[in-house]
Amino acid sequence: MTVFTQIEGGGVTSALGFKAAGIHAGFRKEPERRDLALVVADEPCAAAGTFTKNIFCSAPVIISREHLSDGGTGAPSYGTARAVVVNSGIANAATGVPGLEHAREMARITADAVGCTDEEVLVASTGVIGQHLPLDPFKTGVPQALAEASREGGASAARAIMTTDTHPKEYAVSFSGDELGFDGVTFTVGGMSKGSGMIMPNMATMIAIVTTDAPIAAAHLSQILRDAVGVSFNKITVDSDTSTNDTCVTLASGAAAPGAAPIEPGTPAYRALAAAYKEVCTNLARMMAADGEGATRLVTVHVAGAATDADADAAARTIANSPLVKTAIYGHDANWGRIAAAAGRSGAAFRQEDVSIDIMGMPVCRGGLTVAFDEDEALRRFEAPEIAIDVNLGAGTCETTMWTCDFSHDYVTINGDYRT
Amino acid sequence: MTVFTQIEGGGVTSALGFKAAGIHAGFRKEPERRDLALVVADEPCAAAGTFTKNIFCSAPVIISREHLSDGGTGAPSYGTARAVVVNSGIANAATGVPGLEHAREMARITADAVGCTDEEVLVASTGVIGQHLPLDPFKTGVPQALAEASREGGASAARAIMTTDTHPKEYAVSFSGDELGFDGVTFTVGGMSKGSGMIMPNMATMIAIVTTDAPIAAAHLSQILRDAVGVSFNKITVDSDTSTNDTCVTLASGAAAPGAAPIEPGTPAYRALAAAYKEVCTNLARMMAADGEGATRLVTVHVAGAATDADADAAARTIANSPLVKTAIYGHDANWGRIAAAAGRSGAAFRQEDVSIDIMGMPVCRGGLTVAFDEDEALRRFEAPEIAIDVNLGAGTCETTMWTCDFSHDYVTINGDYRT
Question: ipTM for the complex?
Fold first, then answer.
């Protein structure tokens, strides 16, 4: 079992070989708000990405997919990349043919500044949909961001991709290559993300950018990314909506072990790197759920005893998406009936008499029936920042964990009033 | 095309052969709140029902299904019934074996009072789950309700089944049997329903009871009911949750045409009766959506141009369930991006460049792109009690209509504070 060391203040530039910056380029009116992030590698990197499956996907999603098409035009997407450029404020979604040209131009401007091919630039946008993306802020902003980019620039980049997020989200870990075939080498995986409504089609999106200095081929990096996304970003939900612009990309520089042979699947180093990606992505995902719009609590839904992985996911997802469950938690109500009813309509196979439910570690349902619990103790436990819901369906051995947040008056205020 | 006449103040006792009453029996603490409804037929009736598919279904759902098992143990459920008894305040869900016994006893007490078999009584409960149902209120309440039951009692029965509903829901129509093979006969279909969160597992449920005086066999009545439910109660959603207790039952007395041969499928009379059921159920369903918890607007989502019926339903349902769409309407924001993004993630097949969207009759999206509209005019139209969303996916000829409501601060208040 590899030991991971969390890097204090670490993020997308913690791994060797990467620089970043976040600046105000002019997509937003407020001059104090950063709205352009640039992550640039010293050398071309192995790269991979996962993207929204929404039919109304944005232009930058289409272009980034094109640029990562070494594996063909479908998923998985991987290839080579040197830079990632992101703007916030305008999503460049529902913008038709001009939108595609703007996303291509965004890559071209960045490629010219960095000195790489257009295809080596990945692009992402987040913000209002249906508006055209101006190019002038890139023409002035990208050279400025490149000039400012540094190994300390991760924090400013993380800030530049924010929309309704209340704080930037960064996480990084390192681990030793000793006993993994890389004696004396320290590997790092770090990243940043944004997203608080899951989706905001209107100010769209979750975006995550993860970097590592481990040496690995793009096709294998793609597998590691997909496995990590499957247990992290794909397991969070704020309001059941998924975005037109969701984008998660990763770059691997290999700079921690220059000249070393790349990490191969099936090796201890691969397993350690895959676990590090899960660690980073899971922590970023939890931060996103906890920062859900209007959220006052992070909610962790753990479903065990499912007959299949799909059943575990269906039950956990239905519980995590239930407005009734989420408003109950907001109201500090250990209301297991709403949890049971959500599981019951999820499509997962089980019998009600086999179900156990704990809320915040307190048994509230056994054998499908109410268990008396101390209401005062429940109210005390509701003061914690994280609320655990544990459901055992009693139908098998599969399990999963999903993260969401509670549903507050502020969610309605934020989303009822956003555009006006 | 049969002409239907809406019966002013009509409801579950508009059809010949039915009496009803709603009284305070003691399930609720407040003496002024009616909490027991009884609908009783003069003679045994053809009967049919549809019930929740939630695994955590309540005891009365299980017992009513048993009592309507002439078609076998699965769906469809039909048979013979004489009375329907409903209590509000306690759902008798998640109550195990004792709960089943209480539901059976509820039927037995009613059967003894009415003078029929236990199997001829259908039962339904709505209210808090996980609590045991007391029997004493039935022992005193059912005889009292039977004594009070009258052809004018539909309104009090409709009031007795309410939980968070802000007003009772009743609807009835009549139509002439002339030219349908029943010269000089007037047929009536009427009903009542409750439900405003869709579901409230906690005070669970949608309940609908529809009666008719047309003569028809139970198996055919079952088909008519299922067809009507498919375009009405199954097309409304308040918060995507479905209940442990959802119940819709219907009784046909034949009293409008005593001694006549029953209406057979394929005849004009059958088509007219089926259309009358759709008319009554659709109007009850719209009332329920408009009375969604915290709702300020009824929202009608019409999806056309879908490749399949399933695609039309998926797109309409995803739009109608989207918290972002519903909060936008609450905020009077003609935000088509949220509608498009919901359709895009619904699983329905289409291309974004083929999509048209109108909100309140105003074109806001054509060919997947923004259409400029008059914001002041939009704000004026948002004053209407019903907001129409029309989406054409441009992918085929299938269509559907779904009803929901907007998502307000009051929804959070009602559901965050309910149990406390």
Answer: 0.83
